[in-house]
Amino acid sequence: MNELSLHDETYGAIELPPPRQAISIRTAVASDLGFIDALQREHSRMVGWFPRQQLEGNIRKGQVLIAESRADEPRPSGSGLGAGCGDRVPLPYSRGSLDASPLGYCISSDRYFKRDDCGVIYQLNVSPGHQRGLIGASLIKAVFERAPYGCKLFCCWCAQDLEANYFWESLGFVPLAFRTGARRSGAKKEPRIHIFWQRRVREGDAETPYWYPSETSGGAVRENRIALPIPPGTHWSDAKPAVLPGVEEMVSALPAGEVAKRKRPARGVKGKAAAKPRSVSRGGLWFAPVLSAEEIKAKKAAEAAQKKARKAEQARTRRCNDPKLVAAARELRDRYIEQINEGRMLPPGACGKYEVSRALEAAPSALKSERVVVGRFDGGARSAGRLLDAA
Question: What CATH number is given to the structural domain containing 211?
């Protein structure tokens, strides 16, 4: 990627064009839960997974936006929405007119790490067949427009191996930091890297300082993870080192020049060969022995004990990072952000392809106070002054 083309003064983002399909965006309701849950399960490797109870809480708080096809749009022939658009989402998940069906959703919050000036996007999901139609970009723009006045930044975490990173880059999000996700992911069982993207929300804002957390906790991995800045001159797609609690102990325990290999555990009891089934073969047919009631009861008890032992073995204690490493990461974050905010080191991707900033309305020229009755208590009227625009 040519860095000069990104930071040239003549380069500017274009206004977000309308989606290729007529859509409307609204706040999700309880009846949309089935659509959201089904779509996140289909794309769980890309967007993660929220429990059903957590989704219900996000919907109650109004943190979920739904993009659906316009009810006044002419319905095309066939079961889909057009050539190559895939099947419709089942209609019971839609609200309002039967001609409108949900196409995607976005889960966000206007507060991140207890900061009122920074929001976060948890999930952005578009149904297969409707992607690359600017539906996701329209959802992000709607999130910006609905954000409160004091929210000036929005951020998200995205796995490094996903093409969605190019989407965030096209919207003007800046890659600031990275962290290690799962310890083992994919067929190669290698650590997965997450990229931290952030963007200024307001149009023409060049003063709001960037920020990212030096350490995150919780999440699906249930471990504290240190976030490190992306080195200058390094693209977000380049490989990053894995930093997790206990990694240094694992590396030091390995012999020099050797790679630890995971061996598949033998079936049966640990340390013993798997027991052969008690059966007799006659002409290719297997005759299982008849078990008595006591044997069946003992077999179920043994299976329950083995299942409980496996759960206890899989349960992991939550590890914490070395306090010295956490302090060093915080110091590195502060120095790195200071250089970026002073304009000495602009990260790549600071100029996006599409402009989705929130345009603020002009400030009122004059204000006036109007006395309005706001309530009654014990028969007495209470009045309060309200500031209204002169217009």
Answer: 3.40.630.30
Whether residue 373 is contained in a domain is answered as: no
What domain range is 45 assigned to? Answer: 3-252+319-355
Highest mean pLDDT among 43-52, 269-278, 285-294, 317-326: 43-52
Would you say residue 272 lies in a domain?
no
Segment 228-238, tens digit of pLDDT: 999 888 889 99
How many domains, in total, are found in the chain?
A: 1
Angstrom distances, CA of residue 154 to CA of 126, 198, 207, 280, 303: 20, 6, 15, 67, 49
Q: Note whether residue 107 is domain-resident.
A: yes
Q: For 21-36, how does the pLDDT look when each residue is reduced to its tens digit (9 = 90+)?
A: 899 999 999 999 999 9
Instruction: Give the whole-number percent of the chain exceeding pLDDT 90.
Output: 41
Task: Tell me, yes or no, whether 67 lies in a domain.
Answer: yes
Structure tokens belonging to residue 338: 């200071």
How far apart, in whole angstroms, are the C-alpha atoms of residue 225 and residue 389?
A: 48
Across the chain, the runs of DSSP E, i.e. the strands, are 14-15, 23-27, 64-69, 102-109, 118-126, 153-159, 174-180, 193-200, 215-216, 225-226, 228-229, 280-282, 285-287, 354-355, 367-377, 380-389
Cβ-based neighbour number of residue 38 at 10 Å: 13
